[in-house]
Specification:
The complex is a heterodimer. By secondary structure, chain A is of the alpha/beta class. Chain A folds into 4 domains: 184 residues, Rossmann fold; 72 residues, no CATH class; 170 residues, 3-Layer(aba) Sandwich (Rossmann fold); 65 residues, no CATH class. In chain A, 31% of the residues lie in helices and 25% in strands. Chain A has 18 helices and 22 strands. In chain A, the strands form 5 sheets. Chain A has a 6-stranded mixed sheet, with helices on both faces. A 6-stranded mixed sheet of chain A has the order 17-18-19-14-20-21, sandwiched between helices. A 4-stranded antiparallel sheet of chain A has the order 2-1-4-5, covered by helices on one side. In chain A, β20 and β21 form a beta hairpin. In chain A, α9 crosses α18. The two termini of chain A are 43 Å apart. In chain A, 46% of the residues are buried. By secondary structure, chain B is mostly helical. Chain B has a domain of 231 residues. Chain B has a two-stranded antiparallel sheet. The longest helix of chain B has 30 residues. Helices cover 73% and strands 1% of the residues of chain B. In chain B, α3 packs parallel to α5. Classes of the chains: A alpha/beta, B mainly alpha. Chains A and B meet through α11 of A and α8, α9, α10 and α13 of B. Chain B: This is ABC transporter permease. Chain B: Pfam families: BPD_transp_2. Chain B: One of its GO terms (cellular component) is plasma membrane. Chain B: It is a multi-pass membrane protein. Chain B: Keywords: Cell inner membrane, Cell membrane, Membrane, Transmembrane, Transmembrane helix, Transport.
Amino acid sequence: MADNVDLIAGDASPPAPNGARAAPILEMVRVSKTFGGVQALREVDFDLAEGEVHGLVGENGAGKSTMMKIIAGVYHGFEGEMRVAGQPVQLRSPADALAAGIGMVHQELSIVPDLSVAENVFLGVQPLMAGGVVDWGRMKREAKRQLASLGLDIDPSARMGSLPVGIQQLIELSRVLFSGARIIILDEPTSALSPPEVARLFEALRRLRAQGRTIVFISHFLDDVLEISDRITVFRNGRKVITEETAALTKDSVIAHMIGRGTAEMHMGESTELSGDDNRLVVLSARSLSDGSMIQDISIDLRRGEITGVYGFMGCGQVELARALFGKGRLTEGEIRLDGRPVSFRSTASARRSGIAYVPENRRMMLFRTEPVYKNVSIAILDKIDRLFLRPGRERDITQRHIKDLQIRPPLPGIALGSLSGGNQQKVALAKWLTELPKVLILSEPTRGMDVGAKEDVIRIVKSLRDRGVAVLVLSTEPETILTLADRVTVLKRGVVAREFAHGHLDKGDLLAAA
Amino acid sequence: MSVTTETARPFTFGRFMAEQMRNIAPVFTLIVLVIFFSTQAESFRTFDNLMNILSQASITGIIAVGLTFVILTAEIDLSVAAVANAIGILVAYFTVQPDYVNIANMPVQGWIAIILTLAACFSIGLVTAFGVTAIGIPSFIMTLAMMQIANGISAMLVRGQIAYNYPEIITTLGSGTIFGIKWTIVVCLAFMLVAHVVLTYTRFGRYVYMVGGNREAAEYSGVNVKMIIAAVMIICAMCSGIAGMLGVAYFGSAQQNQFDTFLLDAIAAVVVGGTSLFGGRGGIGNTIIGLLVLGVLNNGLDHIQIDSFLKILIRGLILLAALVINVYAQKLRESARE
C-alpha cells in the first residue's frame, strides 16, 4: 500500500503538451462493480492522459459516479485493474488515493464555514511550530500563495461561511491541490455557480491543466462539459459508450450517446405527448418567487386536473420551490395565489389547512418509522376527524380503506411503519393526503428508488388524483418520472425557469438539452 | 433470542423484551427496591410509611407531570424548581402575613391572589415558549435563563425573609388531609389522571408524541410544531407553579431556595421511569413508576443503617444507571425494528 505512494509524488514528469498524449497517467482496465446484485459497472475501460480535462457525462445511475469513487478510493473491492502511471495500485481509502496523487472535490463541499479560509485550506494538516503550536503566520502565507496560484485574491483570515459558494469551492479545490493531488476529480462543480463564477472556475482549471495536472469534470451541464473538456467519456447503464475528442462532438451527439437514441434500448418514459390545456382553471399561481439564494424569479401555474412536471438537475432549486409552496422556507420576493386569493403561509400547518399537500423526496422526512401505519396516515387529518378526543377506530377504518385502494402490503394498519418496504412506505406517505382530497398535491421524486411494481402503483394513483381534479406538481431530477407523469413541463436551471413545454411531443433529449 | 427476518415478523420473546425494555427496567427496579428495603427494615413496610412516601413524592409528582410533556417532545425545562419557588413565594406575597414578617407585600383576597399568581405563572410559561419557538433559543439554555429569572423574582419578593400565610384553599390543599390522606396526594393523582387522558386520548396528546417522535415528519405532515412546543412549555410552567403553591403550604413556609432539590428529582423521576430523552416514547405511567422508584429509594435509605453522605452518591449512581438504560433501550428498540 505504502509503496505505490511515491510513484507520482516522486518525479512529476514535465507536462505533456495538449493533444499529444503519451502513456496515460491513469488506466482502468475491465472494471466491474456490483452493489447487492445490481451491476453498477460492467467491464469498463477508462483512461486519463496527463494534462487533460476529461469530461464525464451520463444519466443518474449510469455508472460515472461509481467509477470516480473507485478511482478516488471511496469504494474498494471491484473487479478489474487500476494502474497509475503504468503501475498497478490498490487503494483502500480516500487517504490512499490522495497519497497516490488522486483527489476529489464532492458536490457537497466539506468545508467548515466558521473557520477562516486559511484553516480550511489546511484542514487537518495545520503547520506546527515547535511544541505543537499552530504556525498561523506560515499558514496564512501559504494559503494566500496557494489561492493566488488559482487566480484568487482572498484574505486568508476571512471567515469561510461569509464567502460565495463559488469561492468556497475553489478553496476546497486548493486544499486538494495542496495535498499534492495530480489527478483531480470534480463532481458537478458548476451546479451551484453563477455564470461569472463558472468562468472563474474554468480559468482556474485551465491554469491547472497548463501545470500538467489532470482534471476529471463530471457534470450534467453539457454546455459546460463541451466548453472545458479536451476529451469526453459517456456512460450509460453501467457501460462506457464512447470516449471521444471534444472537437468531434456536439451537444446533440452527446445526448444521443447518453440516452441511446435510435438503439434498441429505447423504452417507456423516453418521450411523451404533452396535453397542457391553458383553459383549465388555475388553482395555484406563483409569481416571481425568489428566496435570495437558490431560486430566482420563478413563476408557475398549477391547473386543476393537470400534472405539472418540474425537471432540473440536483441543486436547480426544485426542493426550495416545493418547500416555499408548502409554507416552509422563506421567500424574499414573489406572490402565491390560491384560487385567485393571495396567500402567505407562515407554517406548514396553515398550508395544509388551505388544501396544499406535500410529499418530500425523502420518506424519512414525513414518516414515523416506529409508529403504526394508521397513526402515520391519520396525522394529517386528525383535525378533520376528531374534535378533542381521538377516535382510533375511525383512524384504523380510514387507513384500512387506503390500504385497500393503494394495495399496501402487508394490509395491517397496526404494524410499525418501519417494517414496510420502501415502496409501501411511499404509498403510506401518499395515503396521508388522500382522505380529503387536497387542492394542490406537491410530490418530490415520487418514484425514486422504487421497484417496478410499486412505481406503477404510484403512477396510477397520481394520475387518478389528477383525474379527480387535484392540481398536481411533480418535481424530479429523473427525466423518466417527468415524461411518464407530466401533462406540462417546466425546466429549471440554476434557480430560474429555463424552458416551458405545454403541448406536443417531448422527449428526453429535449429535457436534457433544456436543463 | 431468535429474531427471524421473515416479512411476517413473528412475535418473539427477544423482540418483545427489546421493545419493552424502557418499561420493564423501571418496574423491575421498583420491585427489587421494595423487596430489599422490606427485608432490611421493619419500619419500611408499614402503611404509614407508604403514605409518607406518597406524600413526599406528590409535590415532585406535579412538577414531573409537566416535565413529562416537555421531555416527550424532546425538549427540556430546567426552570421547573425555580418557577415553583417563585410562584409559591408570589402567592404568599399576595396574602396578609403575620406582623413579624417584614415583607412589603400586597395582600388581596384569597381567590384574587390565586388568579393573579396563576396568571403570573402562565406569563412565565409564555416567555419561555416565546424564547424557544419564536426566537429559536434551545430550550436547555432558554430555561436556564428562566431559572435565574425566577430565582431573581423570588429574591426580590422576600428579600431574605420568610412568609407563612397563604390563601385558605392553598393551605388546605397543601397541608390538609381528606379521609386521612394528604390532599397533595389527591391533587397529584388528579393531575396525573388528567395528563394521562390528555396524552393518550386527545388530538393534542397525539401531536405531542408525533412531534417528539420525528419533528421534521410532523412538520411535513402539516402539524404546527411550534405551537405544540409552546403549549408544552406553558403546561410545564403551570404544573410547576401549582406545585410551588402547594409546596409552600406543604412546607409551612415560603422562602428562597427551598425547592432546589426538586429540579433533579423531577427530571430524574421522568427519566428513571423510562420516558425517552429523545422524545416520542413514554408517558405518565412511566413517570409514576419513576416517582415511586425515587420515593422508595429516598425513604428506604433513611430506614436502613447507611452513611447519610453516601445517600447522595447512591442517588447519583441510580440516576446514571437509569440514563444508561434509557439510551440503551432506545437503541435496542431501533435495532429490533430494523
